[in-house]
Fold these 2 entries.
Entry 1:
Amino acid sequence: MTMMDDKTIIAKRVALELEDGTLVNLGIGLPTTVPKYLPPAIEVYFQSENGIIGMAANPEEGMETLALTDAGGGFVAAIPGAVSLDSTLSFGLIRGGHLDLTVLGGMQVDEKGLLANWMIPGKMVPGMGGAMDIVNGAKRVIVAMTHTAKGKSKILKKCTLPLTSARRVSLIVTELAVIEPTDEGLVLREVAPGVTKEQVIAATEAKLIVPDIVPVMPISEEVAA
Amino acid sequence: MKKSISCEHAVEMIPDGASIMMGGFMGVGSPHRLIDELVKQNKRNLTVYCNDAGLPGFGLGKLIATKQLKKLVATHIGLNPEAQRQMVTGEMEVELIPQGTLAEQIRAGGYGLGGILTATGIGTVVEEGKRKVEVDGKTYLLEKPLRADFALIRAYRADYRGNLEYMLTARNFNQVMAMAADKVIAEPHLIVPVGMIPPDCVGTPFVCVHHIVERGQYYDYDGR
């Protein structure tokens, strides 16, 4: 078994999906750790829907700007050439097909590749924020989430929680596998280092289409990808 | 010069039961002085349109803690547990709207449009009770325009005519909300002489702004 923890495996694998020169929106939580594992040669422009293109990682202490924040209200930095946006322009970019990729967390994904990630009726109703627009509008949607929660599969035959969108997501990356939703169903594309196909099938409620050859995720143990 | 008034006077114009557009995103770019004054004058039964519920003790969170809202129309309330509690108990009505849809509904209200068509929300609970419109084979939801009695706008700089300039992510909903209310009150960080804000940097033209709030005691840019 690998020594990496689950979230590191997911973040490192997702980092391989980011392409040079693209506009990317990262959801809160695990997706925000993805940039740590980007190869130095790749330059990606991060959008935060509260109003910026060119967001950079946390500013040095004492260098915070009180009006430069991410969608959670936390201080961020910006690259030279960054752009500030009002909310209509920010979502115009999202809905209008100008956003190349989003990576966001998930509560459930089902056999059709539909995502539920914004509320648990009667328990937790944080609201959808920008998630519905982003899942609908981004050119590619990657769900980065743990495979199970409290021992139960999060990849289900049918979502039991309210859907975020009727749009099929592009890829699901977990600590066990990479799964691609297709017209035929969920295809197992890769397994994590040290994980077998059988282990992934056992941890997944939804039916998986398993090709004869399923490669191992091309991620290394080193911190830099 | 007639546009500049005290914070106290500005809030006196807002009656109980008023509907208010309020800029800000997790308290960043919120009209903090006007919020404090709304608390002080204990204006009640307010309907507020805002991206979120702020944080406990910060931004709109202050008005929610004192139960001054009858209704909140927002996209996300997850960082304010008190807002979630009041929603569950029914003390405050909460309507949740996708963020891009809320922005466009406000834009429609301010730009004189009869609504907007968006695919966001199709196939989810958001579509319930709404008209669907097909355009060139694609289905959209018809989302109606939104307006309010007042807009409370946080700006970086205002001149004495009322032109507003915004700063970075404190711009967010402020710019579009300044178009969509009967009475627009701006709370700038600085008030500068007319002509100091370059025309290309004006985010909201002076014709939309009815009052600007004078600087009182010192506040940091984001009210912290």
Entry 2:
Amino acid sequence: MSSPSDPLTSSSPIRSLPFLAAVAAVLMGLAIVLALVVAPEDADQGLSQRIFYIHVPIALTSYFCFGLGAWKALLLLWREDSRYDLESYVAIHQGTIFGALTLITGSIWAKASWGVWWTWSSNQLVLFLVLFLFYCAYFMLRFSLEDGPRRARSSAVYALFGIVLVPISFLAIRLAEDFIHPTVFTREGPQMTGTMFTAFCVSWTAVTFLAYVLYRVELAGKRLDADLRELREALAS
Amino acid sequence: MSYLADVAALTRKDLRVELRARDTLPAMLLFVLSTLVVFHFALPTGTADDAAYGLLWVAIVFTALLGLARAWVPEQEHGVLDGLVLAPCDRSAIWLGKTLATLVFLLAAQVVALPAFVLFFAPLDATALAGVLLANLGICAVGSLMAAMAAAGRARELLLPLLLLPLVIPLVVGGVGAAISPEGERYLLFLGLYDGVFAVLSWASFEYVVTE
């Protein structure tokens, strides 16, 4: 983290944020047009299948954020550099937000295609619920500990447990339940027409980029907060 | 060899503290028996045995939580943990000692609880018992690390169940599967995998959780 004496180094990446946000907005707009208008209607599921272009990219982005959070946590434990603490926390925060969105969009899709808001036989939804509970506990842990290196390391250890919990929980849920979630990707490759696949790829890029911009904005905000606090303390003493 | 001696000494310390103070084990025993009695009234008559196996796992997990919530209290109250961290031994030995001591408490509670379960509800076969033993390892290994993390926080008793419950869901799946599935061995294999992965992770990360 930069010292309070050189605020410019911490604020200069902020200047690129409006541009990045604009790119994210354009990409999201393009993705929505492709998903709702351009992509052909699914022969089997009809209109409701179009939520797939939003739901699946959000879910993948959420995994990506949790993975990023765990990676930064590993770097924190390895290099003992406190800036990774904030990066890991912000990544997991974004992952949890996107995880909540996954649960909501998944629930809507379940209602449209199976007629119920929640089904325990959908493995991916159950896995997301477990992960969502796990990462909510991450925030409880973080807010219950005193700020300092011990909190940073405890949070990092918990974040690492989370990324190991993903495959273990997936296996557990597979063992526990039948597999009835509609599988769009199989080992033979995507079962989609060219336009559908393009729309999916654009949506995925757009959502990932949006998550990246949100990550940068939150990180910049949190760093400014910390710098400001340090400056205030320096002025007061 | 000295590592094992350290672990043995730490485990003995916990067992001796428990023998003298009798804080944890009687509470765990009474809790698990009361829970089983509550379950008798919670289950409508004529419910299949499968439901009872599920409730057994609820009882086991909550009994373990009760023991784990007390696990680091003596260390916290008297500043023992600082001394242990400063002692010239590998810090993971502290975790392993605590895990083994908690495992002994949990096994002792189950020595009473499992026969009571068989008496009140349904029989347990060898696969189900193996499932209980394997899941005990996982609960104690992960639980003693999470309890050490929670003990440093402001709301330690509240925090531990929140931290631990999402992590033990796979153990409940494995344990219930071993009890009710005709292919119980698959679930035992899964429990073994869980134990191995999370024990190594807890063992490797304990040091980071207790040092300032």
